[in-house]
Automatic annotation (TrEMBL):
InterPro entries: BUG, Bug_dom1. SUPFAM superfamilies: Periplasmic binding protein-like II. It comes from Roseomonas fluvialis. This is Tripartite tricarboxylate transporter substrate binding protein. PANTHER family: BLR1237 PROTEIN, TRICARBOXYLATE-BINDING PROTEIN. Belongs to the UPF0065 (bug) family.
């Protein structure tokens, strides 16, 4: 009987079945906890920032945000996993500048940093720094370059193709010098060898060395930003150190979703992230790590990802850099 009645109704009065948007529209994120994929091992700065964000995001969204480490292949395993996940708002990525670097570094990655992700927000920027031992290293960058012109200089980094390594390659090209690169699997072993006198310097992000510079064990020769850092005001910028022709470069960490994620979900996440990194307790912790909180819309993150991918692919190609 119901079927005969429906068939007899005018088309304009028939019920319409509209497709439901990914993420279930206004009900998101009521269905289940959100997976926050961190593509590195626990303990590093990227993992620390993700965990700092998870709690305020949980509060803001009214749903648990669960950090899940998925390391491997220079973060490519985690990146590809999120790129292939359903764009329903329940799988997010704790991304970093390596998202733009890796396609130029590896022969193949299983994702496109622009096409396969919906940028949500850069949460922090992380300056890079060149450090030497305070008790035996160069007194400033000019002295370091003078030494590099007369004798071999070795520099360590947290790995081939890490942002600090790429900045150092640009600095070498700009100064007409060549340093012997010693890649490590992480910043900690590189710092240990620097302190032991095995290396002359280390190019690294500020996070693991800020306290060592402040305590006087290490000396910073330059930071990669356009301005000096509030936590290390005595360390000059690249330009102040006498390096011209190298644009400022900063690492970043932030949140992305799979491409196709509903725009309303992205917008809500963006607001939650921007509010989270402004919480006093989060700001205090980030600044202590040498990370600088950001307040940006998704479009700003998209612009950075595109520009970084082009810039670093050129540096990698010219320097002939390969993965570890």
């Amino acid at each position: 009987m119901r079927r005969r009645v429906l068939l007899g109704l005018p088309a304009a009065l028939l019920p319409i079945a509209l497709p439901r948007a990914h993420g279930q529209g206004p009900s998101w994120p009521a269905a289940r906890p959100i997976r926050f994929i961190v593509p590195v091992t626990p303990g590093g700065s990227q993992d620390i920032v993700a965990r700092l964000l998870a709690r305020p995001l949980t509060d803001a969204l009214g749903q648990s945000v669960l950090v899940e480490n998925m390391p491997g292949a220079g973060s490519n395993i985690g990146y590809e996993f999120v790129a292939r996940s359903r764009p329903d708002g329940y799988t997010l990525l704790a991304g970093s500048d390596s998202l733009s670097i890796n396609p130029g570094l590896y022969a193949r990655v299983g994702y496109d940093p622009v096409a396969d992700f919906a940028p949500v927000a850069r949460a922090v920027r992380v300056p890079q720094i060149l450090v030497v031992r305070a008790d035996g290293g160069a007194r400033d960058f000019a002295a370091f370059i003078a030494a590099a012109r007369s004798q071999p200089v070795s520099f360590g980094s947290a790995g081939n193709g890490m942002l600090a390594h790429l900045v150092a390659e640009q600095v070498q090209a700009a100064t007409g010098t060549r340093w012997t690169h010693v890649p490590y699997r992480g910043g900690a072993p590189a710092m240990n060898d620097l302190l032991a006198g095995v290396l002359q310097c280390v190019a690294i992000n500020v996070t693991p060395v800020a306290d060592l510079v402040r305590s006087g064990r290490l000396r910073g020769l330059f930071v990669s930003t356009a301005e000096r850092l509030a936590i290390l005001p005595e360390v000059p910028t690249l330009l102040e150190a006498g390096v011209t022709g190298v644009p400022p470069a900063v690492g970043w960490q932030g949140v992305l979703a799979p491409a196709g994620t509903d725009a309303t979900i992205v917008a809500r996440l963006n607001v939650a992230i921007r509010e989270s990194v402004q919480r006093p307790e989060v700001v205090e912790r980030l600044l202590a790590l040498g990370a600088q909180p950001l307040d940006e819309p998704p479009e700003a993150m998209a612009t950075v990802i595109r520009a970084d991918a082009e810039r670093w692919a050129g540096v990698i190609r010219r320097a002939g850099i390969r993965p570890d």
